[in-house]
Write the structure tokens for this entry.
Amino acid sequence: MPAISASAPGKAILFGEHAVVYQRPAIAVPVHQVRAKAVVMARPGAPSGEVWIDAPGIGLNTRLDELPEQHPFRTLIQLLKQAMGLPHLPALHLHITSTIPLAAGLGSGAAVSVAMLRSLSAFLGHPLADQQVCELSYEAEKYYHGTPSGIDNTVITYSQPILFTRGQPYQILPVGGQFTLIIADSGIQSSTAEMVQGVRQRYEQAVETYEARFDAMAALVEKARHAIQKAQLELLGQLMNTNHQLLQQIGVSTPQLDELVRVAGQAGALGAKLSGAGGGGNIIALAPQERVDSIQAALRQAGSSRTLVSHIHPTVANR
Ligand code: PMV
């Protein structure tokens, strides 16, 4: 049997992270420049049911049943078996690679889950529908995030710009004109679960204040959605700056992230903000086409460990 592979993109949250955990809407886009890939191969001669996983990027090379029971790879394969009604799997080898930085707010966990589910289900002869991929990868997200909103697995499964509200069907976000994001890594890893928990603790100490901040973030999402639809890039940039200030107020920014946001603005970005859980990870900057190189250079000069350029393309119907 030939090897079967599947890949999935990274993602960036444009507006509304953290507030999305509290039922406010958020906007996210896929980032195709970084991807996770899973390749499944038969293992002729190996005992039936023996699944071998190797993921060199995280130093994993082991039999599946040697992983801790709660490990997301094990959880995911268990869920897949249940969903497909399979008591056990044929002997197979699963090779996982990813160019998405870990613990950096770019959705590496969800992308690996989506790639695994698609390659394994295709290998087993019944490719899962997107909705099932999304639901099952959400379960694995609980391991990575604790109490995930579901935005990562949704934007990565559907691989389109989306408007997402927890517990509601996602909406594809119409994009009126191309815009360019520079995604700059602070080089500092951070745990989404810990960041979300920190916000929860501060929220509980000051519910009204935090509710008002989340409402303000929701209002930005509403404005941003129109700005994206009408390709009003200056307005979009201003909304990003305001979202960053609100993220500072809920305590998830850091001096490094603030500095990268400041430097991006100084180098000509229309706006910038941290993206994802904060505490480290990436910032995103909205870049006029002619400033892309100089903004990237300024961000690297200011200590960013890696910059990516991602073009968000207009929706086909609007072209
Ligand atoms: O995976 P990250 O770092 O992009 O964080 C996810 C966004 C949060 O809103 C902070 C958490 C969530 O589950 O939505």
About this structure: The pocket of PMV is lined by residues 13, 17-18, 20-21, 105, 107, 145, 148-149, 151-152, 192, 196, 276-277, 281 (CB under 6 Å). The first helix runs from residue 72 to 84. The mean pLDDT is 94.
